[in-house]
Amino acid sequence: MTSHTNAMPTPQAEAQRLESCYPVLGALSASAHARLLHSAQWMRVPAGAMLFDDRQACEGFPFVVEGTVRVSKCAPSGRELPLYRVGPGETCIISSSCLLGHEDYNARGVTESDTLLMLLPKAVFDEMMAERPFRDFVFHLFAERIADLMQLIEEVAFRKLDQRLAALLLGKGRVLHVTHQQLADELGSVREIVSRLLKSFAEQGLVKLAREQVEIIDPSGLRRMASEGKGAA
Fold first, then answer.
1. Which residues contact 181 (CB under 8 A, 6 or more apart)?
2. pLDDT over threshold 70, residue 229
3. Are strands 115-121 and 175-176 parallel, antiparallel or unpaired?
4. Are 199 and 205 in contact (CB under 8 A)?
5. Distance between CA 19 and CA 10 in Å, rounded?
6. Of 85, 87, 204, 211, which is least surrounded by CB within 10 A?
7. What is the phi/psi pair of residue 70, to 5°?
8. Whole-angstrom Cα distance, residue 83 to residue 188?
9. Which string of DSSP letters, residue by residue, matches the chain?
């Protein structure tokens, strides 16, 4: 975690919120439970803060109580491919894999909103892995994240960008207040290509474009494109 995050005390109310998000903590042995709460490092982090970056040492295991952390893989060119998001009750497999493998981070984590999290120091994380409920919890969510990442790989490798863009636009309401750059970031693409595809969508009567806004005109047509890949290449 980067040094600009702000540590905060661990009041009883925050400990209760932690356990409501992560019920597995209640299944720990009394000694392990007390050790975890005593070692907890609380942080309240503003939106847009970088929690960790590529080649940075992993200092602990984060428990998100409030807010969202976006984890992305970054290229030297500056392009990013979003891998997953971590919300309350979820875990970051990049952090767990780095801790388990004694490796540095190989991705970037940035808060998308004001975030409250508890960081469990590496030494205590190692101790908690001896507790079966905690170990099962880590590996279960690890498996779920791996499945999500395999789906992402399939999307990027085998689906055309117009299909992925059409799918991204669906399910967010009739009007999306979003920039072309934000859509490109979500797709791991570049703004110019996304803008070209959106213009093509507009010419086909699928969407209507305005400044930082995309209005869905033909959701059925977008669904067909998302599933069949018909449209601009």
1. 191
2. no
3. unpaired
4. no
5. 13
6. 211
7. -100, 125
8. 10
9. --TTSEEE---HHHHHHHHHH-GGGGGS-HHHHHHHHHH-EEEEE-TT-EEE-TTPPP-EEEEEEES-EEEEEE-TTS-EEEEEEE-TT---HHHHHHHHHT----SEEEESS-EEEEEEEHHHHHHHTTSHHHHHHHHHHHHHHHHHHHHHHHHHHHS-HHHHHHHHHTTS-SEE---HHHHHHHHTS-HHHHHHHHHHHHHTTSEEEETTEEEES-HHHHHHHHHH--S--
pLDDT tier, 76 (very low <50, low <70, confident <90, very high otherwise): confident
**Beta strand pairing call for 108-111 and 69-74:** antiparallel
The amino acid sitting at 38 is: H
89 burial via Cβ count (<10 Å: 0-12, 13-18, 19+): middle
190's CB contacts (< 8 A; 6+ apart) are 79, 184
Specify the pairing of strand 50-52 against strand 108-111. antiparallel
162-179 pLDDT tens trace = 999 999 999 889 999 999
Please, what's the b/e burial string for 106-139 (b: 16 or more CB within 10 A of its CB; e: otherwise)?
A: ebbbbbeeebbbbbbebebbebbbebebbeebbe
Q: Which two tokens stand for residue 230?
A: 């018909």
73: CB partners within 8 A, 6+ apart: 80, 81, 83, 106, 107, 108
CA distance 81 to 72: 5
